[in-house]
Amino acid sequence: MTDNLSQLSESELAAVIENAKKALKDKQEGKRKEVIAQIRELAASINVGVEIIEGGKPASRKGGRVPVKYRNPANPADKWTGRGMKPKWLRELIDQGRNLEEFEV
Fold first, then answer.
1. Burial (0-12, 13-18, 19+ Cβ within 10 Å), 97
2. pLDDT 10s digits, 65-95
3. pLDDT at 37
4. Whole-angstrom distance between the N-terminal and C-terminal Cα of the chain?
5. What is 85-99 written as a DSSP string?
6. Do the beta carbons of residue 68 and residue 104 sit within 8 Å?
7. How far is residue 7 CA from its own chain's centroid?
8. CB proximity list for 78: less than 8 A, separation 6 or greater
9. Among 7, 11, 61, 80, which is most buried by a count of CB atoms within 10 Å?
10. What local confidence, expressed as pLDDT, does residue 63 receive?
11. What CA dihedral angle connects 57, 58, 59 and 62, to 10 degrees?
């Protein structure tokens, strides 16, 4: 089969790929319908209602930036959101006897 494909032009290969994609999609859709029919048949055999929810994309989380809660007064580039481990600069300042509240933004 690869010998036949190597003889094809780029446009012929593109057409073969498109036809293969369409054939695959058709087979998958046929299998999907077959499985849904089996599910409904099984559900009906035990007197259970089934609702098949069609398509749609799963809801995606929209991640946003977490606001900064703490900042190093000596170096404003040092900041911490309050999540995860305390950064080294903050641990050192707390070890020196300073309060966490002093660094709140």
1. exposed
2. 889 999 988 888 999 999 999 999 999 999 9
3. 92
4. 67
5. SPPHHHHHHHHTT--
6. no
7. 40
8. 71, 72, 87, 89, 90
9. 80
10. 75
11. -90
Q: Which amino acid is at 105?
A: V
| In the chain, where the domains are located | 2-45, 70-103
pTM: 0.46
Q: Give CA 27 to chain center in angstroms.
A: 26
User: What's the pLDDT tens digit per position in 23-71?
Assistant: 999 999 999 999 999 999 999 999 998 888 877 677 777 778 889 999 9
On whether the CB atoms of residues 87 and 80 are closer than 8 A, the answer is: yes
CB of 40 closer than 8 Å to CB of 47 = no
Residue 2 has pLDDT above 80, yes or no: no
Nearest to 48 by CA among 39, 37, 60: 39
DSSP state of 73: S
